[in-house]
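Private note to self, pasted from the team thread so I don't lose it. Backbone tokens:
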């Protein structure tokens, strides 16, 4: 990246966390969405559906290795992926203490002095570790009300030395969580493949050897939450995303074009499908458009573990899911091609997945 551009971008950088700490009573204009895109505007063809915790599938992974339970769980996953592309899992094998310690490390990081965090600032999406705001600070016309730290995390030994060394517990706490969620991802991918009628070990080496990106997000309290969003509507690029959150704020778009609130379920993790899964399934499952709202009361944290295949691994529809009745609907793509796309495009206006479509599934 050009050093001059980087320095210029850093000098113009103001984080949402800094604005919150300044006690502002109104948000700067660069965070204000057009009226038609604001979360408090309900259009004729959409509305927000507040779900009860039991309305969005909550799948209990306990006793998965029992054959009768396994059949039930696979069926629940199939139904959830078909209906929502979103579900939550409990008894997932990650200790509550590991989740709590990762969230505590995130809180400590975002409360560091601004100068300390800026050592990791970059608007280069190819950087293995970067601190920033919005989606793409250098390109976004309207900023998101969030700060983030993103870093690659698998295999952990390849990346952890690049992670923040301050706060002192960050690498250990976040590393323990990253390894645990990577193991859970392997299990979930087997279940999702089986739910599609594929062998559970389909692309097993590629799944285990794929990319894991942790996106740790801080959404500060916002004095005008009706004018902005924590993250603009988008879909994730990868196979699945596993999300840990401290309070509700995540919303996704259902098949009826409604925004659906994802409730906070204590101890649960949210699982959502990404673009790679839609392509691989040849459109049987759909990646999910989602957004994050903000609130006036207190900050919200989330840790999104974004899983994809290796940087240059081409993913296309599984040949087992393509035939005369279900012709191929997507061109193949790699993670690197996605990064190239978001470097040159505003993903709030142009969806990467649309560039891959051969025909509507």
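Design output:
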């Amino acid at each position: 990246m050009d050093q001059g551009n980087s320095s210029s971008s850093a000098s113009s950088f103001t984080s949402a966390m800094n604005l919150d700490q300044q006690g502002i009573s109104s948000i700067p204009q660069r965070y204000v969405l057009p009226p038609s895109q604001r979360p408090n505007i309900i259009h004729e063809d959409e509305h927000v559906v507040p779900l009860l915790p039991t309305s969005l599938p909550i799948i209990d992974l306990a006793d998965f290795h029992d054959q009768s339970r396994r059949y039930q769980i696979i069926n629940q996953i199939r139904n959830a992926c078909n209906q929502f592309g979103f579900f939550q899992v409990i008894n997932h094998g990650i200790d509550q203490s590991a989740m709590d310690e990762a969230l505590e490390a995130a809180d400590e990081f975002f409360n560091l002095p601004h100068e300390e965090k800026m050592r990791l600032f970059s608007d280069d999406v190819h950087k293995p570790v970067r601190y920033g705001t919005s989606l793409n600070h250098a390109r976004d016309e309207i900023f998101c009300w969030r700060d983030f730290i993103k870093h690659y995390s698998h295999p952990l030994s390849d990346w952890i030395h690049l992670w923040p060394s301050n706060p002192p517990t960050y690498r250990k706490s976040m590393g323990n969580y990253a390894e645990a969620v990577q193991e859970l991802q392997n299990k979930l991918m087997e279940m999702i493949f089986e739910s599609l009628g594929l062998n559970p070990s389909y692309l097993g080496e590629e799944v285990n050897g794929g990319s894991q990106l942790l996106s740790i997000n801080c959404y500060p309290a916002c004095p005008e939450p009706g004018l902005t969003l924590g993250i603009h509507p988008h879909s994730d690029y990868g196979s699945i995303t596993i999300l840990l959150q401290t309070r509700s704020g995540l919303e996704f778009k259902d098949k009826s074009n409604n925004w659906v609130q994802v409730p906070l379920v204590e101890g649960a993790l949210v699982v959502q499908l990404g673009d790679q899964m839609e392509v691989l399934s040849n459109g049987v499952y759909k990646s999910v458009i989602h957004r994050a709202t903000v609130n006036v009361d207190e900050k919200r944290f989330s840790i999104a573990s974004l899983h994809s295949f290796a940087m240059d691994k081409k993913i296309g529809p599984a040949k087992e899911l393509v035939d005369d009745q279900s012709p191929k609907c997507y061109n193949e793509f790699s993670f690197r091609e996605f990064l190239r796309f978001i470097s040159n495009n505003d993903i709030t206006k142009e969806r990467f997945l649309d560039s891959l479509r051969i025909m509507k599934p």
